[in-house]
Amino acid sequence: MSNNLLKVYNKSTDIDNALPPVSELLDRVKYTTTRYRDLDGEEKEFDYRELADADGYPIPMPVDRENYGTVDSSAYYWVTGHCDWLNVQTAMDRHLYRRVGQPIRLLDFGCASCRFLRHPAVFGGEKYDIWGCDFAVENVNWNKRHFPPSIKTFLNNANPHLPFPDNYFDVITAFSVFTHIDQFEDAWLLELRRITQPGGLLYLTTQNDAMWNCYLESPYLLEHLKRANKVSANKIHVDEDLFRSPMPESRMVFRMSDREVYNCNVWHSNEYLRANWGRYFKIHDICDRGHNNWQSPVLLSPK
Fold this sequence. Notes:
Blueprint: H1 3-6, E1 33-37, E2 43-47, H2 49-53, H3 74-95, E3 104-109, H4 118-123, E4 128-134, H5 137-146, E5 151-155, E6 169-174, H6 185-194, E7 196-206, H7 209-212, H8 219-225, E8 251-255, E9 264-268, H9 270-276, E10 281-286, E11 296-302
Parallel strand pairs: 3-4, 3-6, 4-5, 6-7
Antiparallel strand pairs: 1-2, 7-11, 8-9, 10-11
């Protein structure tokens, strides 16, 4: 079967040249104290030097982490995953119905090269049964090469199906995944609902109202989104004036390329999330800018 039918994403890789563990990269940073926004919108601070010593796994080269940052910013790449882990723990404490005496089954949907999953693996240990999936075979290969079998990662595709029975997972996370899903959004939401147990938790990040005007704060992100102006399918022109006003539609889709998959940048208003995602889930909270200050986690449980 061809990749076009499978709808997987082919990308570059540098799998043989992984960077050393984060503890060996700290000489490239001036400070090891970092700040993050918690789920209540409060700024928190912690020193990650001692935490970094616990993680002996290598760090991906930028090409193997969706070009997230540079080699010199690799410690910060690690820190963003830990900040998400802190917020996911808070969300579980508040909203997850726990199965006493059993490990928490956790799936990171769209796990890339385990930016997030390495943290429950290192700091959660045997309390977690850890799974990840991605539709880029290079990411899955990287994970299998550099992480132990206890972090179980596999290749999925863009079609809304995952190989698990109903009610299998306690927690499902998805970081910057629904920001790139267009036509199959509802189908993927329903598939994730199917495999989440009653009383389980979904932690899905979005670009919402709180993020819209923030694009004016980041010339880099704005210039990236302006690439949509080169794709004829887009009806709205991207410029600074667009982000000085409220979102013109409750759900915005910007085509970023003519690829079959991984080709769009999607925004959801809080009104849209409550009206549409709320059909399938109980929405516990929408935590503005709780994903490293640039996306907003939506905390949900299956209805």
